[in-house]
Design goal:
The complex is a heterodimer. Chain A is of the alpha/beta class. Chain B has a two-stranded antiparallel ribbon with strand order 1-2. Classes of the chains: A alpha/beta, B mainly alpha.
């Protein structure tokens, strides 16, 4: 039995087969604990087709793909592969039905060799003994065929390969599994330009072999180069499936965004009351960030938008000293400062409400009291003496609903946990608070409460930097918005932009139609006339 | 450090060898200097040389036939337990019950054999079956009940302890002379039979790890259970199997000690400190305590290092406290050295895992766009 040979035979056979819909997903629904994430999605992909799936963060792309890969079970709907209905309760079953998925984070073991990874779980045997020679031979054959321009030795440790090579190994693994359907989740997110080119050639080769490829990407250019059809998802619903040659990138972006702002947001601050620059960064750079020029004023909320991996969180962590800037200058109240650790940041009056409150923001098994006092206790004794805190008052200030101050934080709801984190930072009387995804995992009702608290901070003269993947939140809350792309600030927008404006900056779409170009020019004009700092 | 040609016989190179078209000698030298296992053996040689010199200054010979035989015999009991311990640690588990398993099996051997040479074979079978049964319990509790291995095996250890203490409070006679003479003290040529047993156990475990599916998948499960599961590995089965073999090794050690002492004893396992000492030997041998990396040959070197130190301290008549201090320092230094080495390698490793960017790692370890 040789999985490698089989896969090639199958692929060769499929290339000559007719273009029937190899994969059909019908009415796929998914809810997590009563929250509807997918509302009945239909999707088709033919053999020999690259089908792109696009949508904003949180549109449901990953959930849909995880359902296809057997990692999640759908609440309703059916998956039909090659005319046969399938029910996957384990990734292994999806694999056996011919579905492979290449996640953004690879499923490889860095301490094992390339061949061992490719054949993991299906090692060829001769008697009792794993036939290492055969395993390496097969792997080499697969790799040579699929990636002749970049030979990867089958006995090299995967951890020593480049990201692009690791991806090649992942694809080789999928090929050796005899997959008919390949899902690629943001495959170019961590590749350099020439590696992307190479990947495209390979994807096209797979397409010619008759594989059905579902390609998730934010980069519209790639999608137009590779895909025959494009399905747009939004808020867990399918907007439309279009043929790639019948749609422009501008139309595509419009399909992806453009939803009503039906959520309530607190009124924005009065621009005249905006204070002086609280924090100024010039030329900030780390190994993932570059050319960061940034002003945050007292009393304003500066929103940070951008795609996943664009450097939003890294920016927050750089300011907070967790992964400090390696270059550039930072000023607080006009005085140059060095912030090389979170302790120094806190001493300078910076607070950080992190994305993952359960592991970074709270000690879950401790009481509300201990958690609220946590950051305060970390202050220097002198500062602590100046600042007396009353946990009860702080909890009232954030309208915390708990069964007393002794209650363990893990028993609180997500919204109340977040309030504890905010109270924790209030205790240090911060002058700048960074919020990273402040309402992630918090139910809709409680979101408004958090939004009110954030606005309340700004109204009290605190400078706020708020990162969010949810465009309505960024738009609804921010007094100004910066958009990140590839570790840099791609642009700045005034209060109340459209989602399309943000998406254009975030995706870096260059071939935009004239109409939208005019829109952009208008935005640029507004920007310069507003005379905002920040951009040099 | 040392430059001499190593006296280590036929070191076959650890699992992660990537040789080009070099000569056998060059490859051997490379595997000795570049791989963790190779470096452990170099360290073993260095320690041997230093100890030999120190003991020579005192006027005795660490490398006399008698002394070497003594060190080997010392290594047998710890060595066999540590071989099994290596398996579970590579699978990112741990076994703290081995010391009590050793005590229990030594007693059971004495009870079943009951002083009669005719009962030796059934005694051995019962003991081995008992070892496997305990390993099965360990494995099932860890995988099916999802109890942390530390707690699971500690719990099993306490249960065995309670059982032993409720029934026996001293040496249990009954190991027949035939068993004592054969496994405990007989020799084939210059080599004690027990040393051959040690070699056989290591050859077997080495073969398992390097050449069988079980071995390949055990490394994978230890490296990442999630990745293994998604690749179709039956992770529970692999881990249970590792625990069965580990307890089986402990049972073999129990048999050996029963033969050596001519009796079963409730305290033989804990007095020897086989639980923590076997873990120490494993990590000293370069196996990563958090699973996925390591080699049983490294463990053997770790066992020898501990035995050499023991003999040296005895020859020098160092007091017991100083002995433990030196051993502690050596273990800590060794593990610190490995973790620096691995950290260096990890920096080059990118795109692996969602890397929660929080752990305060050096910024180099993060990759643009690799997370989220």
């Amino acid at each position: 039995m040789s999985p490698g040979e089989e896969s090639r035979e199958a692929a060769g056979g499929a290339a000559t087969a007719t273009r029937s819909p190899l994969l059909q997903m019908r009415g796929i629904k998914k809810d997590f604990l009563g929250v509807h994430v997918l509302h009945g999605i239909d999707l088709e992909c033919a053999a020999g087709e690259v089908h792109a799936i696009v949508g904003e963060n949180g549109a449901g792309k990953s959930t849909l793909m995880k359902i296809l890969a057997g990692a999640y079970t759908p609440s309703a709907g059916e998956i039909i592969i090659d005319g046969k209905p399938q029910k996957f309760s384990h990734p292994l079953e999806a694999q056996q039905a011919g579905v492979s998925i290449i996640y953004q984070e690879f499923n490889l073991l860095p301490d094992r060799t390339v061949a061992e990874n490719v054949f993991l779980g299906r090692e060829p045997k001769r008697g009792f003994i794993v036939d290492r020679a055969k395993m390496e031979r097969e792997t080499e054959k697969l790799l040579r065929e699929f990636a002749p321009d970049d030979p990867i030795p089958p006995d090299e440790l995967v951890g020593r390969l480049s990201v692009a090579q690791q991806q090649t190994v992942e694809i080789a693994k999928a090929l050796s599994l005899d997959s008919k359907i390949l899902v690629m989740d943001e495959p170019t997110a961590s590749l350099a330009a020439h590696e992307v080119e190479r990947l495209f050639t390979r994807v096209k080769r797979l397409r010619e072999r008759g594989m059905a490829i579902l390609y998730i990407s934010h980069r519209l250019k790639e999608i137009f180069e590779l895909a025959q059809r494009i399905t747009v998802l939004k808020d867990g619903q399918k907007v439309k499936t279009v043929n790639a040659d019948e749609v422009s990138s501008a139309e595509l972006v419009k399909l992806m965004v453009g939803r009503d702002l039906d959520q309530y947001f607190p009124p924005r601050g009065d621009p005249s009351k905006r204070g002086d620059v609280k924090l100024r960064v010039r030329g900030g750079a780390t190994d993932v960030l570059a050319n960061i020029d940034l002003d945050i004023h007292a009393g304003e909320i500066l929103g940070v938008a951008g795609l996943q991996g664009s450097g939003r969180t890294e920016l927050a962590r750089a300011i907070f000293g967790a992964d400090p800037f390696l270059e550039g200058t930072v000023e607080i109240d006009g005085k140059p400062v060095k912030i090389n650790s979170p302790q120094q940041a806190i001493a300078h009056g910076i607070g950080f409400v992190s994305e993952d409150r359960k592991s970074e923001g709270l000690t879950l098994a401790q009481s509300v009291r201990d958690n609220v006092a946590l950051a305060w206790r970390g202050l220097a004794r002198r500062r602590r003496n100046q600042l007396t805190i009353n946990v009860k008052d702080l909890c009232q200030a954030v309208e915390l609903r708990s069964r007393g101050l002794g209650q363990e934080v893990r028993f609180l709801s997500g919204g109340n946990q977040q309030k504890v984190v905010i109270a924790k930072w209030l205790a240090t009387e911060p002058q700048l608070v960074i919020f990273d995804e402040p309402t992630r995992g918090i139910d809709v009702g409680a979101k408004a409460g958090i939004h009110d608290l954030i606005r309340g901070l700004a109204n009290d003269g605190v400078a706020v930097l708020m990162i969010s993947s949810e465009l309505p939140e960024v738009i609804g809350m921010s007094d100004r918005i910066i958009v990140m792309r590839n570790g840099q600030i791609a642009g700045e927008l005034p209060a109340g932009p459209t989602e399309a404006e943000i998406m254009f900056l975030a995706t870096g779409e260059e071939d935009i139609e004239a109409e939208t170009e005019a829109d952009l020019a208008k935005i640029q004009e507004e920007l310069s006339s507003a005379g905002e700092g920040g951009k040099s | 450090m040392t430059t001499s040609t190593p006296p280590v016989a036929q070191h076959p190179g650890p699992t992660a060898e990537s040789g080009g078209e070099r000569s056998a000698a060059a490859r051997f030298w490379r595997s000795l200097t570049r791989t963790t296992t190779g470096q452990v053996y170099l360290a073993l040689i260095a320690i041997l040389v230093v100890c030999w010199v120190v003991v020579a200054i005192k006027g005795s010979n660490l490398l006399s036939i008698d002394s070497i035989a003594d060190m080997l015999i010392r290594s047998v009991a710890l060595g066999i337990v540590a071989a099994g311990q290596t398996l579970v640690i590579i699978g990112m588990s741990l076994d703290l019950s081995v010391a009590w398993v050793i005590s229990l099996t030594s007693i059971v051997a004495a009870v079943v054999m009951d002083g009669s040479n005719a009962n030796i074979a059934p005694g051995i079978l019962v003991v081995l079956a008992l070892g496997m049964a305990i390993g099965l319990v360990n494995g099932l509790v860890i995988t099916k009940l999802r109890v942390n291995p530390f707690i699971a095996t500690l719990g099993v250890a306490l249960i065995i302890q309670g059982f032993i203490e409720s029934r026996w409070d001293g040496v249990v006679e009954g190991v027949p002379g035939g068993f004592e003479d054969s496994l405990g003290y007989s020799e084939i040529g210059p080599l004690p039979i027990a040393v051959l047993l040690l070699v056989a156990v290591y050859a077997l475990v080495w073969f398992l790890l390097r050449y069988t599916r079980f071995g390949h998948q055990l490394y994978a499960v230890g490296g990442s259970e999630e990745v293994s599961k998604l690749s179709g590995v039956r992770t529970h089965r692999i881990l249970i199997m590792a625990h069965v073999i580990c307890s089986l090794c402990a049972a073999v050690t129990g048999l050996y000690l029963a033969a050596r002492l001519g009796a079963g004893s409730p305290l033989v396992g804990t007095d020897g400190g086989y639980d923590l000492e076997s873990i120490a030997a494993v990590v000293l041998g370069g196996t990563y305590l958090l699973g996925g990396r390591g080699s049983v040959l490294g463990t053997l070197a770790g066992v020898f290092i501990l035995a050499i130190l023991d003999s040296t301290f005895n020859a020098l008549e160092v007091n017991a406290f100083a002995k433990d201090v030196v051993r502690g320092v050596i273990i800590i230094v060794a593990v610190a050295a490995y973790s620096f080495r691995w950290k260096e390698r990890r920096v080059r490793k990118i795109g692996a895992g969602p890397a929660p960017a929080v752990t305060g790692n050096a910024p180099q370890t993060q990759t643009p766009g690799a997370n989220a």
